[in-house]
Every structure is written in structure tokens, then in C-alpha cells.
Amino acid sequence: MFDLPELWFGKSMDEIVGFRSMLVRGKHRVHVKKFEEAGKTMDKTRELALSGGPVDVELGFKKKPRRRFVLDDEVQPFGPSAVIRSMNVGTSRWDHRIEKAYGDTDLKAAEAVVTLHEKGVLTSRIQRAFSVGAFGLKKQRRLVPTRWSITAVDSIVSKDLIEQIKNFPEINEYRVYESRYLDNQFEVLMIPGAWNYEAMEAWYPGTVWNPAGRRVVLFSDWEGFEGRTTYARIGGCYYAARLAVGEMLVKERRQAVVVVLREVHAGYIMPVGVWQVRKTSEMPSGRFP
């Protein structure tokens, strides 16, 4: 539960902050391209990342963990941390689907990510394995920062879904889906037409990214039928929502013009990660006027 965002939807802000603050992070410096030579700590970290379930871990720290709570709109909150002195890991059982992708050093990272998603592996587990360099051609594997791995997986999977969506017939009615969670209001509009996508965010005064403002601050980005070649200005939320609506259309085997509108109100007192954008966009109620 503590490290599986797919199970958090519906939890209150206090609950999420409560159990995330009880997690202690161990830190160990490793060269991103030479992590295979980093020794036992890196090997054990990989065991944890590829595990199919919780694993008992005992950490010894060089100093008392710092009472610092790390906040980022793309990554779930992190609790206190300290540099590792020693690390012992209990028996772990790897997810055989992820293990197979890890063992295939001729399989490109994007292909591994798409295949695992198609096999039903949880998005957060794919992201975790991606971050420890578990996928890709042998000589091209490297460690990836957590926030980058989250956005990369959302982007890769949603891009594959879109290529499928482009071959489906268009919807024949105008749709509005809506959902609210953690004082975030989502409206997903689906309009008859060839695939196009836009995401727009409105941050109200008193929110995380507009704490002292007097007016609503707007951010947006979009893509046409041919997709985009640059990183979206509004960041990981763009790709998280694109993944959610992409899965919705693939299940229905339809395509549409999609606009995702997000209003962030003052009750959203701290960022909890893009998982809440993905999950809230996945679970809307619909109106078909």
C-alpha cells in the first residue's frame, strides 16, 4: 500500500501524507551508466525494484535520517532520507514478466514497456523497473531519475495506444466525463473527429503552484493527429491524462478529439504525484448531452 499508487485512489490527503512520511529512504551514489559495477547495494536495489510484492529490508545509515519531506507534482511524496551504511534484503520473488524483459538484452526499452503494459503489469511497477535500468539494449541501459521514469512510461504507453486509436472509427456523439478527487476537478471532453488531444490546467489562488496569486493561472499544451516531437510544457500530467483517455478509447475501439480540463482548487494543499491525474481521469462519470 505505502508504495503502490494504484491503491491510493479515494484516500484522503492526510492518509497519503501519513503513510508516505513513515517511509525512510536510503541513499547511495551510483554512476548512471556504470551501475552494473556498483556492487551489492545496487544489486539489492534492483531486487527490490523487480520484486512482484513487498520485501523485508533492513537498512543501516551513516547518520540519522533527515526530517525532510520531498514534494514534487510528478512524483509521490518522499519521507526522511539518509546515506546507506549497510543493506540486507529478505527473500524476494521477481515478477516473472518483468524478469523476462530484464533478461532480454536485445529488447528495446520502449518495446519492453509496451509489452509489460499489455500483459497487465501495474504502471507503477513498470516505472520502478525502468528507473533502475532494467530495460533496453545491454549497452544502452542506465539509471533514470524517478520523475523521468514515471513520465517516460506514461508517454511510451500512451503513444502506443494512440497508434491503435488512429485506426478505429470516430465516436458519433459529444461526450463529457467528470471526476473530482483531492479538490481537483476533471472534465474530459470527447468530440467526434480524428484523434487530437489537448490538456489544460487551471490553478486557483492558494494552491501549490499559485500560492500568493489573485487570479487563476492557466497552463495548456496539445497535439494533432501526427503527435508531438517536443516535451509538453505542462509536464508529466499531460502524459498521465493522455494514458488514461487512451486506455478508455482503446477499450471502446474508437477515436475522438479529446480535451482534458483540470481545475486545481485550494484544498489541494500539496502535490502528491501524477498518479492522481491518471487515476482521476480513469474513473469519471459520463454525460452524453
Notes on the protein architecture:
A hairpin with a 2-residue loop joins strand 4 (175-181) and strand 5. Helices cover 32% and strands 20% of the residues. The strands form two sheets. Strands 7-6-8-5-4-9 form a six-stranded mixed β-sheet, with helices on one face. The protein has two domains: 5-144, no CATH class; 175-287, no CATH class. By secondary structure, the chain is of the alpha+beta class. The mean pLDDT is 90.
Write the layout of secondary structure elements.
Blueprint: H1 13-21, E1 25-27, H2 40-50, E2 57-61, E3 81-89, H3 96-103, H4 109-118, H5 123-131, H6 146-165, E4 175-181, E5 184-191, E6 196-203, E7 217-223, H7 236-252, E8 257-264, H8 275-282, E9 285-287
Parallel strand pairs: 1-3, 6-8
Antiparallel strand pairs: 2-3, 4-5, 4-9, 5-8, 6-7
Helix pairs in contact: 4-6, 5-6, 6-7, 7-8
Keywords summarizing the entry:
9 strands, 20% strand, single chain, 289 residues, alpha+beta
- Calculate the terminal CA-CA distance, rounded to whole Å: 38 Å
Helix amount:
25-40%
Q: How many domains make up the 3D coordinates?
A: 2
Low-confidence stretches: none
> Which term fits the overall shape?
globular
Order of helices and strands: HEHEEHHHHEEEEHEHE
Number of helices: 8
Q: Going across the biggest sheet, name each strand in turn.
A: 7-6-8-5-4-9
